Amino acid sequence: MADKVLDAKGLNCPLPILKAKKAILEVPKDGTLEVLSTDPGSVADFQAFCRTTGNTMLETGEDNGVYRFLIRHTG
Amino acid sequence: MSQTDSNQKSMSIIVTKGTLDWAYPPFILATTAAAMGVNVSMFFTFYGLALLKKDLDLQISPLGKPDMVMPLAGMHMKMPNIVGVIPGVNAMATTMMKNLIAKKGVASIPTLREAAVESDIEMIACQMTLDLFEMKKEDMIDGIKLGGAATYMEKALASDINLYI
After folding, report:
1. Is B105's CB within 8 Å of A10's CB?
2. Domain A4-72 belongs to what architecture?
3. Is residue B110 included in any domain, yes or no?
4. Measured between CA atoms, how close is B100 to chain A, in angstroms?
C-alpha cells in the first residue's frame, strides 16, 4: 500500500505531472506515491519525470485504460 | 532536489503570443520544467503580455490558420479565411476551444498560470511593450517584474535552455 495515492484520472498533460510533483512532496523520503492516470502520454512522461528528478519508478501497469505508477520518493 | 543547488538547470522562455491556443506551450513547458526542478524565467513581450493581465480574456482566431482543425460531431472542421472575417466567428471558435479544453481534461490557462506563480516561476513583463501599448502594471497580476532586453539577455546567457514562443 502506497503512502499516498494521487487520482489523476481524466486529467491531461501537464496536470498529472504537476499534481504528482506536489503530492510527492507530501510523502516522506523513501515513501511511495501511487499515481492513477488515463492520459496515455503520462506513461512516457512519468518515466522522464522520475529520471530527471531522481525519484524511482518502482512499478508501472495498466488496467482497463487506467495507468498506474508506483514511485519512491528518492529525489 | 534543493532549490539552491548550484547545478540546478535553468530555462528562459520569451512569450510573444497572447491567444488562447498559443498561451498553452509556454505555460505547459514552464510549469512542467519547474515541477522537474528547473529554474524558469518567462519574459512576456508584445502580445504575450495579454497573458499577465488580471482579467484574462483570451480569444482564438481561425484567420490565417489553415492548420487549425476542430473536431465537430465526429468530423473535423476547417475554417476558410473568408469565414474567419465574419463578426462573431472568433467568439464562436473561442467557445468551441474552451468547451474542448474542459471536455478533454486540459488545464485552463488561469489554472496553469496559477501553477506557474505557485512554482516561483519568474515572470518579467517587457517595459517597452507596456509603454508602447499604454498598458499598466496595475492591470497585471502581482509578483511580476519589469525589464527589458538586457534583463532577458542576462537570464538567457545563464540558462541551459532558451525558448522563443
Report:
1. yes
2. 2-Layer Sandwich (3.30)
3. yes
4. 12
